[in-house]
Structures are given as C-alpha cells and as structure tokens.
C-alpha cells in the first residue's frame, strides 16, 4: 500500500473516531461507552497508521470498519420491524450517515489493498512519492474529509446540546404513527 | 583523510536530502506559514471596528469569520510554521505536529462554542472546516514524513 493511500485511510479513521467521540454526548450510557471506546480506538489507530510504515492490524481494522455499519443497520431494522422507535436512540442521522460513508471507504480501501497484496500486485510498501504530489494528495484528502466531518460534528452538537431535550429530530422521522 | 571525505560526503548528501523541496515538513510549514500570515494580515481589512474579543467578527473572503484576536493567532501560528520550515526538518516537524494537534482540538472545541460567549475567536462553521483540515494534514505530515530510520533517511 502506498504512503498516500495509507494516509488517506488514516484521515478517514480520524474523522470517524472524532464523530464517534462526539456522539457520546447525548447517547444512553451503554451506547455512550461503546461509542467512546470505538472512537478512542479509531483515533489511536489512525495516529499509528500515520506514524507507522504500514496499516496496523489491517484485517481487524477491516472488521472494525464494517461492524458499526452492520450493527447500525441491524438496530434500525429491528426498531422498524418492532415498530418501536423509542427502543432506538436519539442520534443524528447526518452524523451516522457520514460515519458510514467514511467507514465504507476505509473498509473498501483495506479490502482492495489486502486482495492486491495477496496477488502480489499493488504499490510496494513504503513507496516514496514525490514531495509535491504527496502534499497535494494530503491537502485534497484532508479538506475533503474535513468538509464531511465538520457538518457531522456540528450535527452531533446540535442533537446533543443545542436543542432542548425531546424537541430535536431523533433517529427516526415522525411518520404519524406515534399515536399507536 | 578517508574518514574526512566520507564525512563530507555524508554531510553533502544529508544537506541535499534535507533541502526544502525534498522535505514535506519544511515545504508544508513554509506554505501553510505563508498562507496563515497572509490570512492574518488580510483579516485586519475586515475587522475594522470589531472588538478585540468580539464573538461576531468580520467575514474574510465572505466565508471565514475572524476578529482581531483570531487575526493575531493566525499571524503567530503562520510565523511559527514559516520560521520552523525555513530553519530545518526537525523544527518544522515539531511545529507542524504541535500546531496540528492544537488545531484538531480547536476544530472540535469550536463546534461547541460557536453560539456562546466563549467564542472569543469569532469562529464559524467554515473556520472549523479549515481548522480540522489543516490539523489532519499537519499531523499526518509531522508523524509520517521525514522519518530517520537506522541511519537512512526517508523523506515520506
């Protein structure tokens, strides 16, 4: 995996980690603990990925990137199937959607990299890119991730603190079934 | 004599490798430093009449909200990045890392104080995007580039 790709993945992981940490505010305690642990792990993993010469534990990271998406989908499906949105939780949909996009990108990049290395293809480890190309690639990716992560973080703040409890739009949109 | 030639050769090689255009940390420090100094100076053109710690500042480029304290912070951070970048790899790497970590913290804290009296830098959403973006790029380059490994230096 090239240095640029590894750093892009680290950017996305830092973004998802930061969002997960911000989601702790306003989440129920058990979920808050899980989100906090996930966020800290993602932030640390991203820093090790930036500082190291290869991705730390790529297969575990692949599972770690996919797990929140799958779990979120299962919870959503279960809550809708049981017609019990209150069993869900009040997390901002925008933040969750952006996190899912970043996690999917991380998982895809890692999966492609693992597949290529298994076939002996792909960029050599620690390939040294041209300085200018390296910086431009990081600047573009950095601003792209920032423009995704910042609205997501703002949404967590809005959902958790800015709007009085019980008045903000929750995880589910009110579709008129609340009177059942 | 042989030792001296080897030493000179090593120093020449090191000097060549540490040249500004070959070091991501130095190049990024100089570019970001120059941009932030410029932004700091331009900021004063839109903050005439704005209180030093006002939570409502002027709009730079019609997007980024700044007040005089925010301008001074840009000038100081820009100067630090610029000077470190000009001085060498080690200071550039250190300052990039410290500024990156500080910006990451500011980018996150800024989200929670935008509409409060604690917003003494007059931060708005666009500022937070820029701070978060700058933070991750500075951190990535400080942590990942210009590594020295077992007597052999790798630029990235």
In short:
Chain A has 180 residues and is mainly α. Chain A has helices at 3-23, 29-51, 58-81, 93-118, 131-162. With 156 residues, chain B is mainly α.
Structural overview:
The complex is a heterodimer of chains A (180) and B (156). By secondary structure, chain A is mostly helical. In chain A, 70% of the residues lie in helices and 0% in strands. Chain A has one domain. Chain A has helices spanning 3-23, 29-51, 58-81, 93-118, 131-162. Chain A starts with a helix and ends in an 18-residue tail after the last helix. By secondary structure, chain B is mostly helical. A two-stranded antiparallel sheet of chain B has the order 1-2. Chain A binds chain B through residues 3, 7, 10-11, 14-15, 18, 22, 47, 50-51, 126, 128-129, 131-132, 134-135, 138-139, 142-143, 145-147, 149-151, 153-154, 157, 161-162, and chain B through 21-24, 27-28, 31, 107-108, 111-112, 115, 125, 128-130, 132-134, 136-137, 139-141, 143-145, 154-156.
| Quaternary class | heterodimer
| Tally of DSSP helical segments of chain A | 5
Q: Could you give a short account of the major beta sheet of chain A?
A: none
Query: How many distinct beta strands of chain B?
Result: 4
Query: What's the domain count of chain A?
Result: 1
Tell me roughly what share of residues is in helical segments of chain A. over 70%
In one word, what is the shape of chain B? elongated
The residue-averaged pLDDT of chain B reads: 84
Q: How far is the first residue's CA from the last residue's CA of chain B?
A: 34 Å
Query: Can you give the helix content of chain B as a percent range?
Result: 55-70%
Overall domain count of chain B: 1
Segments of chain B where pLDDT lies below 50 for 5+ residues? none
Overall outline of chain A? globular
Mean pLDDT of chain A equals 80
Most extensive interface between two protein chains, with residue counts: A-B, 33 and 30 residues
Structural class by secondary-structure content of chain A: mainly alpha
């Amino acid at each position: 995996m090239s240095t640029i790709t590894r750093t892009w993945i680290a950017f996305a992981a830092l973004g998802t980690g930061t969002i997960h940490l911000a989601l702790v505010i306003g989440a129920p305690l058990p979920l808050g603990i899980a989100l906090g642990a996930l966020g800290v792990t993602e932030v640390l993993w991203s820093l090790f990925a930036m500082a190291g010469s290869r991705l730390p534990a790529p297969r575990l990271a692949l599972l770690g990137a996919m797990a929140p998406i799958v779990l979120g989908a299962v919870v959503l499906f279960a809550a809708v199937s049981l017609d019990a949105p209150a069993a869900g939780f009040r997390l901002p949909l925008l933040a969750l959607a952006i996190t899912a996009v970043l996690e999917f990108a991380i998982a895809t990049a890692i999966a492609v990299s693992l597949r290529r290395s298994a076939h002996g293809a792909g960029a050599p480890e620690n390939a040294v890119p041209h300085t200018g190309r390296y910086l431009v690639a990081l600047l573009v990716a950095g601003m792209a991730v920032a423009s995704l992560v910042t609205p997501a973080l703002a949404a967590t703040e809005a959902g958790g603190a800015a709007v009085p409890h019980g008045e903000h739009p929750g995880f589910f949109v009110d579709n008129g079934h609340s009177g059942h | 004599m042989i030792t001296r030639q080897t030493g000179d050769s090593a120093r020449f090689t090191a000097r060549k490798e540490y040249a500004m255009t070959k070091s991501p940390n130095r190049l990024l420090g100089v570019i970001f430093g120059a941009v932030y100094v410029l932004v700091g100076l331009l900021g004063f053109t839109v903050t005439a009449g704005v209180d030093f710690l006002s939570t409502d500042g002027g709009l730079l480029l019609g997007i980024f909200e700044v007040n005089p304290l925010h301008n001074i912070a840009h000038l100081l951070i820009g100067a630090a990045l610029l000077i470190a970048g000009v001085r060498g790899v080690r200071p550039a790497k250190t300052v990039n890392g410290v500024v990156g970590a500080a910006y990451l913290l500011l980018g996150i804290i800024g989200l929670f104080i935008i509409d409060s009296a604690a917003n003494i830098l007059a931060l708005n959403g666009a500022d937070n995007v820029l701070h978060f973006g700058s933070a991750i790029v500075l951190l990535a380059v400080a942590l990942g580039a210009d590594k020295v490994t077992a007597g052999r230096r790798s630029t990235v």
